[in-house]
Each structure stands twice: as C-alpha cells, then as structure tokens.
Amino acid sequence: MGLTPEDIERLDSIIKRGRPYHRGDHLYRGGDKFHSLRVITSGSVKTYSPNEDGGEQVLGFHLPGELIGLDAIQDDNHTCSAIALETTAVCEIPFSQLESLSSIMPSLQHQMYRLLSREIGQDTEMLTLLGKKSAEERLATFLLSFSERFKQRGFSASDFFLSMSRHEIGNYLGLAVETVSRLFTRFQDENLLHVERKHVQLLDIPRLYDIVQGADRAKSSQSRI
Amino acid sequence: MGLTPEDIERLDSIIKRGRPYHRGDHLYRGGDKFHSLRVITSGSVKTYSPNEDGGEQVLGFHLPGELIGLDAIQDDNHTCSAIALETTAVCEIPFSQLESLSSIMPSLQHQMYRLLSREIGQDTEMLTLLGKKSAEERLATFLLSFSERFKQRGFSASDFFLSMSRHEIGNYLGLAVETVSRLFTRFQDENLLHVERKHVQLLDIPRLYDIVQGADRAKSSQSRI
DNA sequence: AAAATAACTTGATCCGGATCAAGAACTTCT
DNA sequence: AGAAGTTCTTGATCCGGATCAAGTTATTTT
Hints:
2 copies of one chain form a homodimer. By secondary structure, chain A is an alpha+beta fold. Chain A is built from 8 helices and 11 strands. Chain A is 46% helix and 21% strand. A 4-stranded antiparallel beta sheet of chain A has the order 1-8-3-6. A 4-stranded antiparallel beta sheet of chain A has the order 2-7-4-5. In chain A, helix 4 (135-152) packs across helix 7 (205-212). The N and C termini of chain A lie far apart (51 Å). Chains A and B meet through helix 2, helix 3 and helix 5 of A and helix 2, helix 3 and helix 5 of B. Chain A binds a DNA duplex through residues 134-135, 165-167, 175-182, 184-185, 197.
C-alpha cells in the first residue's frame, strides 16, 4: 500500500489480533463506543444499520483484507452494526494509536486519506446502483463485485461461495427475496451461471458485464427478432 | 470545528479564493486532475457522475459551508463532476498543502478524519433512502434535509428556494420527473407545504418528519376509516 | 430418523411509480 | 413583443418488481 517495510513494522506494533467470531456474533453494534478499525483476516462480515421502521439496511459484505469501521470515526460511536456471516478472524487497529502514528508518518496519513476517500467513492457507486439500475443489473453487479474481489485475493473469479442468505442479498440490493431467487434461476436458465444454494459458478462473465452496463435491453430485443 | 484561532490562521494561509462561477459552469469534471478541495461560500453546486449508459447520477446538492471533492483524494483524479446551479463562490484548499499542514497539526488531522468519516455516514443514509423508501418518503427526506441545512446556516427552515430543477431532484432521489412533480402537488393539496416553482414553504414540518419515518402508511389508513 | 424450523423457489396477483402523451407556464433569444 | 425552446404539470397507460400464497429443500432439534 505504498508503505516501507519499517512503516509496516511500526503499524504492525499497534495491531491487535482479536479472538475469532462465530456465525451470528457481532463485531460491534450501532451505538457502541468506537475504539478500533478492524481488518478482516478470514471469513466474512455483514454491516448493516437499523432503519427507523424496524427493518434493517444491509450496507455491505466484507471479505478478508477489507477494513471496516471507517464510518464510526466521525463521532466516536459506531453508526452501524457488524456481524460475522461465518467463522471470522479480525485484527483490531486502535484508532487513537493509528491517528498518532499517522501524525508522524506522512505516508500512513496519506494512505488513510486515500482509504477513506475510496470508501466514499464506493458508496457513490452504490448510489447509482440503487438509484438507476434494474434488478438484473443489480444482481449482475453484485456477482461481479464478488468475482473481482475473490480474484484479487487469489481465489477463483468464477467459482465461489456466497456466505450470505438470499434475504440479505435482496436487502443489500434493494430487492425482495423472491426477486433475487428468480434472477438466480433466470441467469442459470440463460447459461450465465450455475448456482446451487450458496455455491455460485459464473459461466459467462463477459455477458454479465454486458448486463451491468444495461447492454441487455438492446441485446435481448435483438435476440427476440 | 475544534481548531484554535492560530490553527485557523495557518489553515487560512493556504486557502485560495477562486473566481466566482456562473450557473452551468463546471467547478471540475470527472477525470480532471485533483488538486484542491473546495468549500462553497455562496450559491450552490450539484455533483454528479456519468453512469455507463449515457445518463448521469446526481450525487448531491451542496450549500455554502459544505466541502466537496473528498471522493477525489483516492487516486488524484476527480471521479465525479461538479457544476454551479447558480452564481457560486468557492474557496480552494490545495490538498497537498492541507495534507502537509495536517501532518504537523494533529487537531487538523483529526478534523479531516472526522470529515471524511462523516461523508461516508451521509452516503450510507442515502443508501437506505434509495434502497427502501417510497417516493413520498424520499421527497420528504429531501425537503427536510434542505430545511435543516438552511436553518443551520441561519436561514429560514420553512421558506427557501431550491436551485435545482425537478429533473435533478428526481435523478438524485431515483424518481421520474413526473413523480416529483406529482408529489409536490400532492404535498401541497395535503397542506404540508406551499410550492411555486423553486420557492418552497414548508407548512407542517412535524408531519413531514412523520412521513420520513413511514408513519404515513399507518396514518393514512386510519384517516380512511 | 422423525419433527420442527428456516431458507429457498415458484406461481399468481397487485400496485407504485415509470413511461408515454399533451398541454401550460416560464425563459431565452431575436 | 413574438417565437422558440425549456421546464413543469397533469392525465392515461403500462410494467417491473413487490406482495401474497404454497410448496420444496435444507438445516437444526429432539
């Protein structure tokens, strides 16, 4: 990440390895006092925030290597909750120490600014997804996001397990469970993928990218001729 | 913002007052080299990003006192565009200088982290809006957001001008122009507000808050008895 | 292994909001 | 001031995806 080995070492000295969490355990809850950022080292995590009328909004699914808790810096309290989707290990980075360290390590400070900014960028992409895209485009985007992130981590880009339920996927994408289920079936019928419960195999990644770009409407009207 | 007067002075020394922009002028465009954050001092600004299929997604409307450009830190390029909605004045804060300054001013660094984190928090609120809320709830949320922001700046919380078009409001809220127009009419019919083109007068702010919380469904079914 | 529960799928129906269409009000240009 | 182009409003229709309703397949409990 643009840090020297000795930078890394200093950073490493403040990192605490937390105990592992089991499926359903909370890493933190909305309202909890904020003290640490967390990096997921194995497993996966869902972040969500309760919305006024009792339900919840899933904010994200997080894989190993990803940092969570950035939203809590603003007022020393967690604004959302984080829950383990499977057995999950995390490292904790006490924020006050990270802040002090970044004061004397410009490269770390720079990296922190970039990280926070990237998070903002990712959120705005999600705004476009929820504001303008069809159900099909949403699920394709979702699947390719996982594909890319698994690939980046050295796993298969086309064969992976989703640790969250259909319900959680729907909530995240602003869709009903039934719609998500139907879309998986449809994508499978169209030979875009093979799905069996949580196990997904992407069979035609290029066409999934076409769908993301809405190329789909034009294309399907062609094939209907 | 938690800075001492002398901190402010040092910060002030790097701030550049830019020339004023007229309606329709771009402050920056997606892809432009990023060099400065900007604080709006008067007028208003729309930020938006082009989405793959030609259209655009409005990301936000920004009023005096607000900071824009935080999303661009991540890779030295602007990821979205910013355009003046009316005659607008801004201050530019060269980011590299701000970064250096924050290295030697822990309080400034702290403030920057909070600011970036707050932006993330705001984006996630917007995700809930777009993911789960009805058209009514969206417009009520939108109006109350402006009400609060104007109030905070010493202007009327119930009587203000919106500088953006119905089309832009719709785009921002994930709604069609026609829906926005109809909702304004409906809200007026229900004596929630008075609207005449861009001039809005909120007549029943408490009920607008009820609508935001979806209290509306229950209530309207009562009144139908 | 059977029973209970939870997660998922599939079908039928419904509805909120999009889209299409046209007119009205406002702005800008000449 | 008149013409032309915008922006906004209002009405009619349509459709994507929500909701309702069952049935099916996993998972957990006993």
